[in-house]
Design goal:
By secondary structure, this protein is of the alpha/beta class. The protein is built from 16 helices and nine strands.
Length: 366
């Protein structure tokens, strides 16, 4: 388990609580700098060039994301008055737009969507409400993820629960059962997404600073107010059916993307002394090459290697940055069909430096 706190210089501290004892607080930057180990000066120059936000592109993305989502809400309400099954395919489409809005929310959290920090925060709060997510609290946790992704000694902040082979073998029976349940696709992509957005985000994480805790409280009160207002118009039952259905679909898509972005063949996981931010970005974050329509709905986040290399690049520039340098084009993509292989990945084998399935655990421990 990880506890976290922020320091005054923009860094964060992490403390790992584990069965063997307590690891002392260590500092890390919440926005890791682009390190010199990027292979070429051209790569570094291109990354810096695409960090600049575009007001024109940001405005257009707001229009083609928020407006259709609001219109689809009206359509779902009308369809639900006839039949839930008539509303269901509309909800699936609305979930695609909600996922796209989450990417905008995500960019605002990195202060990359607009040049203005105030504009990023304002839009981030609104997009967070639509996604049932407290903006400042999520932003704080997500910064920790960027500073620890691929580090075996600092797992737990915004990650899919991942054990090494040896950790699994030496776990108690109940912990192994819990881990198997947590990695079950039905739990991971059906139950967990709805729980995370509807329940988990209603509570502040242990160790969260006061401003981030206040973000959770304000979001909860705002959701209650909006919920009461919408219920007065369409009814509480209709609100629940529509919102929970859309959130379940969008959450499943989002969790699948996050899973594939960090749990794929050839992924990067090392111990802290050997961890490098640039290597973690380019080797530990996948280039998920999706069909064009899915790439649009997911806001180009399949270019996750570029995003982790520089979180200040807005989503509408990720593909441009990837295509601007031959080095990035040399990175092997994970295709939609190939990504389903990751469902068989259960544990990280430090000896093989690869993900493996439970069958690799011997002596009756698996």
């Amino acid at each position: 388990m990880f506890a976290t706190a922020q320091t005054g210089n923009g860094s964060a501290r992490i403390q790992c609580m584990c069965p063997g004892g307590r690891v002392s607080w260590t500092s890390m930057p919440t926005s890791p700098p682009l390190q010199s180990s990027v292979t070429s000066q051209a790569s570094k120059d291109n990354v810096a060039r695409f960090q600049a936000a575009s007001l024109r592109k940001a405005r257009w993305q707001m229009i083609n994301s928020f407006v259709p989502y609001v219109l689809l809400w009206f359509a779902m309400d009308r369809a639900l008055s006839i039949s839930y099954w008539l509303m269901l395919p509309i909800a699936l489409l609305a979930a695609g737009f909600l996922a796209r809005i989450f990417i905008i929310f995500h960019d605002c959290g990195h202060a990359s969507f607009f040049k203005s920090r105030r504009a990023n925060n304002a839009l981030g709060i609104v997009a967070g409400l639509l996604n049932l997510t407290p903006y400042r609290h999520w932003r704080w946790q997500h910064a920790l993820h960027h500073g620890t992704a691929g580090d075996l000694d600092r797992r737990g902040s915004g990650d899919i629960w991942t054990l090494t082979v040896q950790e699994y073998i030496h776990s108690t029976r109940w912990r192994r059962i819990a881990y198997r349940l947590a990695r079950n696709p039905i739990v991971l992509f059906v139950i967990a997404p709805l729980y995370v957005f509807a329940v988990h985000h209603r509570f502040a994480a242990r160790g969260a600073p006061e401003r981030e805790r206040q973000s959770v409280r304000c979001t909860n009160w705002a959701l209650l107010g909006v919920g009461l207002a919408v219920s007065a118009v369409i009814g509480f039952k209709a609100l629940l059916l529509i919102q929970l259905t859309v959130s379940a679909f969008a959450g499943a898509l989002g969790l699948w993307l996050f899973y594939v972005q960090h749990q794929f063949e050839g992924a990067y996981w090392v111990r802290s002394p050997h961890w490098d931010h640039t290597a973690a970005a380019l080797q530990g974050s996948s280039y998920y090459k999706l069909p064009r329509i899915l790439q649009w709905f997911t806001g180009n986040i399949g270019f996750h290697h570029i995003h982790h290399l520089s979180p200040r690049i807005p989503n509408y520039h990720l593909q441009l940055c990837h295509e601007a340098d031959p080095f990035f084009n040399s990175i092997k993509p994970v295709t939609l069909f190939a990504s389903f292989k990751s469902l068989s990945f259960r544990l990280w084998d430090e000896q093989r430096n690869a993900f493996v399935g439970f069958q690799h655990c011997r002596h009756g421990r698996g």
